[in-house]
Specification:
Helices cover 46% and strands 4% of the residues. The chain contains 7 helices and 4 strands, in the order H-H-H-E-E-H-H-E-E-H-H.
């Protein structure tokens, strides 16, 4: 049973605070970009980063050595940050880089070339990964053999009992669900993408999730509840209309953002 709640549409009057907030945020972002570009020009002219930071009342940070795959905690997952950092030569200044909440200027102080660590220092890790890889290969081979047997016999409970494996039922879920009950999110495909039905009770392959391998077998399906749909049709239509109005409002806000110059009379919005 799903819990449903009606979504109310917003008119211009109800949305005025949202519009003003969006425009102010866009304006603040634009001002921050201009400030970053201005500071870059000063840095090119010779002003030190520490002086620029002091003038702006912000902090200057020197990062530890990091790889292109690392994420700096103070920056977060900003792809352009790492991409630019590793393209810079020593002492070269970057353009302003946009992040979720800030703009960044980078200058490479020192670069450490990739090096191969001594074998003894990584031997245990290599051995561990080799064992894990070999174990996964063996389990995959066994799982694929069981899959072929399941396609012929069509009895997953009998097959599991013969090989000391456990069978669990997922319970009901819709094909559009983001994950499968008792399993979670599959690495390769969403639940609706698994080719399984009364016509094809066993998929063509095994599936993996967090190091576990799964064999699926179809049990039963349930058609759409048309009686419930008829009862809730009017509510669903109203909800769809509300969502359409919300999208139209968002499009209007986006069109305001796209203008090169925006003048906002907050008072007139409040009085409308």
């Amino acid at each position: 049973m799903e819990e449903t709640r009606e979504e109310k549409s917003k008119g211009l009057k109800e949305a005025k605070e949202e519009i003003v907030r969006s425009i102010k945020a866009e304006r603040g972002k634009s001002e921050a970009a201009k400030a970053a570009d201005a500071d870059r020009e000063k840095a090119i002219a010779g002003t030190d980063f520490s002086q620029l930071a002091k003038e702006r009342g912000i902090s200057q940070k020197i990062s530890p050595f990091f790889s292109s795959a690392d994420t700096l905690p103070e920056v977060g997952p900003v792809e352009e940050f790492n991409k630019t950092a590793f393209a810079l030569a020593v002492k070269e200044l970057s353009p302003a880089i946009e992040g979720p909440n800030a703009y960044y200027l980078l200058r490479t102080r020192q670069r450490r070339e990739p090096s191969m660590p001594p074998l003894e220092s990584v031997r245990s890790e290599i051995e561990k990964r080799l064992k894990e890889t070999k174990a996964l290969e063996m389990v995959s081979q066994k799982a694929n053999a069981l899959l072929e047997k399941l396609k012929k016999e069509k009895n997953i409970k009998k097959l599991a009992a013969e090989h000391g494996l456990k069978v669990e039922e997922t319970g009901w879920f819709v094909r559009s669900a983001p994950e499968i009950p008792k399993i979670g999110v599959l690495q390769e495909v969403k639940p609706g993408g698994i080719p399984i039905s009364s016509y094809q009770p066993v998929p063509d392959r095994i599936y993996a999730q967090k190091g576990n391998l799964y064999l699926f077998a179809f049990k039963e399906s349930q058609g759409a509840d048309m009686e419930r749909f008829e009862k809730e049709k009017s509510r669903l239509q109203e909800q769809a209309l509300a969502e359409k109005k919300q999208r139209a409002l968002q499009k209007f806000v986006d069109s305001l953002k796209a203008k090169s110059r925006i003048s906002v009379n907050a008072r007139s919005l409040e009085e409308s």
